[in-house]
Amino acid sequence: MANARYVFLDGIRGVAALLVLTRHTDAFWNFEIYRAYLAVDLFFVLSGFVIASAYDRRLRDGVLSVGGFMLVRLIRLYPMFLLSLVLAVFAWSASDKPAPMFGGSLWLAATMTALFLPTPPHRDAILFPLNGPYWSLFFELVANLGYALFHRVLSTRVLLGVLLVSAAVMARMALRMGTLDAGFSFTETSLLLGVSRAVFGIAFGVLLFRSAGALSKIARHAGSPWLAFAAVSAVMLSPDMGRLNAIVDLAAVCMLFPLAVLSMSRDAATRFDRTLLALGAASYPIYVLHAPLGELVLHLLPGAIPAFAPYSGITFISLLMPLAVLLERRVDIPLRRWLSSRLTRRSTLQST
Q: Cα(122)–Cα(127) distance, rounded to whole angstroms?
């Protein structure tokens, strides 16, 4: 199972990335997909599942050190992250927006971001104002570090304890705010919600991978992977439900998403494999590139974009999707292989 390619998980990750795109390029659409923010929670569960699949045994056997694991994770994220940061700095420079922080120093802010560090509080109190979606990558890396550091004690019982505690914090913050749509700003509630969302999702993903064999009967009775795919998509597309929003969000994250990931992790070949894999390949480039690219396009065509919405949004996606696949295959993968061959050879063999 460790070498499996989960085509349905790839596909739903791509759909989730596209929904996040619509949330951050609202001028292109003239409508809002309200619950698209739950895509981040889905990403966390998927990340935990895939990371456990790839690294659980290597960490357990001592083949991979904590430092080696974190280096591998940074190499996985950094090439597209750096490209998106360059575009974000260019977009800020081209726009008439004030520099976001540090007394007006855009370059100092860019330096902090390049180190995967949030910018200290400023006028809009966003963790990563140059490119908002970076906040989830930051919390994912924090959770990844915890997973690697405490891997040897993360038994099933301990993972269940982590899930209970993080779920309790997440539920308390969500009920206080009336939503799970937080984690990207410097307020105490938002930071607690961001950490708990990441820890809960990644821990649940790890537990699902480790328990996949024991839960195989549940997965078989959960129905077709397409049913799980449709259910997750439907929840993320669901409208604002007022006072019920926090309950809907928590039910989706704590119950639907884990069951759906378990169902979609089954080896079920389909005629749409190539499409699902393409969606997965495009997902990360889309996630980190859509906001700065959208800002640049909006700067170049400030009147045309809202005037032709939602067709401008459809055009944006139709151009970004093949670009993202091309970047993943021709730039991201070759760069990661090159970096891995030079940076991980010694670190993966070092002891913690």
A: 9
